[in-house]
Task: inverse folding
């Protein structure tokens, strides 16, 4: 069986020893101890395992690790720049957009993916983009508010940077 | 030996609500505690009964004799850091934050100086479990009392040290100071090289809520950063050196007995440990994928008797009554001739916590340590001790903050599975249930059948009220409305699926039936549904939330467009008062039902954390939406047919309506819990709104799993 020997995760090349068909989720969690990415269903229905591959949200439970080889993988652990949180992480805190927070990593990664392609999404667009992510505690309105807040923060800082 | 015999296969509904707290057996002495915690001050909160015993007759007892019913304790170290120990656990209801607020309030320290150790059976006092909305009314009070006593002790200490009157001293920001002499010292400085211990009774007086400065105000989740960065380690994220991953081979059906098993193929896989112990068959392997392959390679045959299905469950419940626990207290009155009757059904539903059950077990000789997500760490300790025939003192259960529970994580089966595999493998083993296992082998919210018969007199007053709940439970059974004659019963029955607690217990089923039927009675009496309720209501607190919701929602609403409907419902349970208004839009051409707005008012006494409370009310509305509209476990002959998120529909972003919440803060009343009760009004408010829109009365939960019939 072909093997995968390294992955590019959160900006660093990391050695792994995985079968090509192993799920990216299992390799991230078991071999790289990146447990911020969660198992929720194993069928791509809940979004708890969402990571970015070359900036695009993917369900890592359904992604064979071979498909991610050589590509830039970003997990929840790789979003903050040192002590500086990503604006969407800040927004989740400010809006208290969590209860048990088990869905939070996947929600944030899906939200970051959305904001990358649509910096100022409407409420409808946000709900569409996150509809594949399940929150059982029922914090949906807060999560929508957090994405909107992050959009404002990011637009503002971009404008600020241009001045 | 067959460990599985020790796993409770059936959990009585609400059995946890009925169980008395067992007296705590305290293993540690004061000396042990200081050895473990370091010098400083130790405040223990015990029930007033124990303290009274302690102080009776024989003068002051030495603190080495610990009372047996300590609920919580608090330690302040020489570095000023405050550590709070409680057996309660965090599953997203945000008590780590609200309990911290309570301690910060009374001890006058910033919350950043506080740490809560929760749900660790070695370190925290015995606790029956985190359920029944009991944390705020009980643990919150105990910790406030411990913190207040600690603050008093620090003032005494400062007064002695500076030789000044205690009355002048102020406590703020982790310091005691005297504005006159300008003396000031941190708590840590005052406690240097000391080992002070104090036992306080549960009945000590406290600051009234009107004087709260930290509590009563919103506080963001205190360790929120760990959750948005992925740093927090949930039970399923735990890891130990040399750890293996475990999988259990499941029976083909519920109640099935093992006929034959062939484990030879799995045993040949390198690195795989196979365990066969009675009916328990499991594997452990160095990766989860290998463990999954090994479990799949085991061939097993099972025999099971035919079992009921979801299609005939309601008839099954009605036709299989069991003895009632209590005899009928009220005389049986025959129902009047003008009474109307209806039957309501409630389906089995799953908690579906996003983090499935998980446990990591590690043996060191005869000592067993288990990290697991459970609402009852001490209950799981008992289960483990019984399963392995070892003393409870040999078992430590730790509960990392967990990916939710909703009443669904009271039992310890995953912990037992991991521990059994770890004992055979002689290595730590982690078992994380798959989503299919979580949907199949956990327990469910009970299905139920509810019969109601009632009559209304010519003045619009309830004259007769008869209400019988088959199987789903007794919570919220009794009507808050006045009725001259009342007959209300819970009728236990045989039941086809493993069932147990769920957020709000049977109060959801009972409120669905009662508040839907109140709507039916209002229409029969030609009265506005709110007016009819208020006419029959004496309880001022419930009346106040009805009026608050009505005001926010705009009740009675003016009908605007075809297909639009409005409903109202409410109730009281576990010290919380809730009312909910729903607006729905029904597309009669397609039968699609959309809930567009939910407005609720909630009152639970003095509010501890307004934003945390609002979050719980919003979450209850959304979780309640699923059970109201479409959630149902589909089962047939001992198998679950929809054990996946692709087949079991839960609320998603597109399902979520506009949600508005009114919180009534009653600072003059003790705080009640809030994680459960706000869910009870959702289903009847939606059902009543659908009736308002269509004239169709839906009497079975979920009301529209596939939409309405198109017309």
Result:
């Amino acid at each position: 069986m072909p093997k995968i020997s390294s992955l590019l995760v959160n900006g660093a090349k990391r050695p792994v020893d995985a079968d090509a068909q192993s799920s990216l989720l299992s390799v991230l969690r078991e071999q790289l101890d990146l447990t911020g990415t969660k198992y929720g269903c194993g069928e791509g229905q809940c979004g708890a395992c969402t990571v970015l591959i070359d900036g695009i949200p993917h369900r890592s439970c359904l992604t064979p690790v071979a498909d991610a080889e050589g590509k830039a993988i970003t997990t929840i652990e790789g979003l903050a720049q040192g002590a500086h949180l990503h604006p969407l992480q800040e927004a989740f805190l400010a809006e208290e957009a969590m209860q048990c927070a088990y869905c939070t990593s996947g929600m944030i990664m899906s939200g970051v993916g959305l904001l990358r392609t649509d910096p100022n999404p409407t409420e409808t667009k946000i709900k569409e983009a996150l509809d594949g992510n399940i929150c059982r505690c029922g914090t949906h309105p807060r999560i929508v508010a957090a994405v909107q807040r992050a959009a404002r923060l990011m637009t503002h800082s971009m404008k600020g940077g241009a001045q | 030996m067959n460990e599985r015999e020790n796993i409770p296969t059936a959990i009585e509904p609400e059995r946890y609500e009925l169980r008395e707290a067992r007296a705590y057996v305290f293993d540690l002495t004061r000396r042990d505690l200081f050895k473990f915690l370091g010098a400083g001050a130790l405040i223990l909160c015990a029930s007033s009964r124990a303290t009274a015993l302690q102080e009776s007759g024989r003068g002051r007892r030495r603190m080495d004799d610990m009372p047996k019913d300590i609920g919580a304790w608090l330690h302040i170290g020489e570095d000023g850091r405050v550590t709070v120990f409680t057996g309660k656990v965090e599953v997203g209801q945000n008590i780590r934050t609200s309990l911290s607020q309570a301690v910060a309030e009374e001890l006058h320290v910033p919350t950043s100086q506080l740490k809560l150790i929760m749900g660790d059976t070695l370190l925290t006092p015995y606790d029956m479990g985190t359920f029944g909305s009991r944390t705020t009314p009980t643990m919150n009070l105990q910790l406030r009392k411990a913190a207040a006593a600690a603050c008093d002790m620090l003032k005494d200490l400062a007064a002695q040290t500076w030789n000044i009157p205690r009355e002048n001293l102020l406590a703020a920001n982790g310091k005691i100071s005297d504005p006159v002499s300008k003396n000031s010292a941190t708590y840590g400085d005052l406690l240097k090289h000391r080992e002070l211990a104090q036992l306080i009774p549960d009945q000590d007086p406290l600051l009234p809520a009107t004087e709260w400065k930290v509590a009563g105000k919103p506080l963001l989740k205190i360790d929120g950063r760990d959750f948005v960065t992925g740093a927090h380690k949930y039970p399923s994220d735990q890891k130990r050196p040399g750890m293996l991953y475990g999988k259990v081979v499941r029976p083909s059906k519920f109640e099935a007995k093992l006929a034959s098993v062939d484990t030879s193929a799995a045993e040949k896989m390198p690195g795989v440990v196979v365990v066969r112990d009675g009916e328990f068959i499991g594997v452990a392997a160095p990766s989860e994928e290998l463990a999954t392959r090994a479990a799949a390679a085991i061939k097993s045959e099972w025999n099971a008797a035919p079992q009921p299905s979801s299609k005939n469950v309601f008839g099954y419940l009605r036709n299989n009554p069991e003895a009632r626990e209590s005899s009928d207290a009220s005389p049986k009155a025959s129902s009047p001739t003008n009474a109307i009757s209806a039957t309501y059904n409630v389906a089995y539903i799953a908690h579906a916590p996003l983090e499935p059950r998980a446990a990591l077990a590690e043996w060191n000789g005869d000592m067993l340590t288990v990290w697991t997500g459970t609402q009852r760490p001490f209950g799981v300790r008992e289960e483990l001790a019984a399963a392995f025939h070892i003393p409870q003192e040999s078992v430590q259960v730790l509960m990392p903050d967990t990916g939710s529970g909703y009443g669904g994580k009271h039992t310890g089966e995953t912990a037992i599975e991991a521990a059994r595999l770890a004992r055979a493998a002689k290595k730590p083993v982690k078992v994380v249930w798959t989503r299919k296992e979580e949907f199949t082998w956990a327990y469910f919210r009970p299905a139920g059948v509810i019969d109601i018969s009632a009559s209304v007199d010519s003045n619009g007053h309830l004259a007769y009220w008869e209400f019988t709940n088959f199987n789903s439970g007794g919570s919220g059974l009794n009507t808050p409305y006045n009725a001259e004659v009342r007959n209300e019963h819970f009728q236990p029955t045989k039941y086809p699926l493993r069932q147990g607690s769920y957020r709000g217990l049977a109060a959801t089923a009972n409120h669905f039936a009662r508040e839907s039927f109140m709507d039916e009675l209002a229409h029969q009496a030609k009265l506005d549904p709110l007016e009819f309720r208020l006419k029959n209501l004496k309880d001022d607190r419930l009346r106040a939330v009805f009026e608050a919701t009505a005001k926010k929602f705009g009740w009675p609403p003016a009908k605007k467009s075809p297909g639009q409907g409005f409903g109202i419902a409410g109730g009281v349970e576990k010290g919380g008062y809730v009312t909910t208004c729903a607006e729905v839009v029904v597309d009669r051409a397609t039968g699609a039902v959309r809930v567009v707005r939910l407005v609720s008012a909630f009152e639970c006494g003095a509010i501890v954390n307004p934003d945390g409370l609002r979050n719980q009310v919003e979450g209850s509305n959304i979780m309640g939406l699923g059970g109201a509209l479409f959630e149902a476990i589909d089962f047939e002959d001992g198998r679950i047919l929809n054990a996946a998120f692709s087949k079991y529909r839960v609320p998603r972003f597109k399902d979520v309506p506009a949600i508005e919440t009114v919180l009534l803060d009653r600072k003059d009343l003790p705080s009640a819990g809030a994680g459960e009760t706000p869910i009870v009004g959702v289903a009847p408010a939606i059902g009543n709104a659908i009736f308002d829109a269509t004239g169709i009365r839906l009497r079975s939960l979920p009301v529209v799993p596939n939409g309405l019939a198109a017309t």
Summary: The two ends of chain A are 55 Å apart (CA to CA). The longest helix of chain A spans residues 140-162. The first strand of chain A starts at residue 3 and ends at 9.
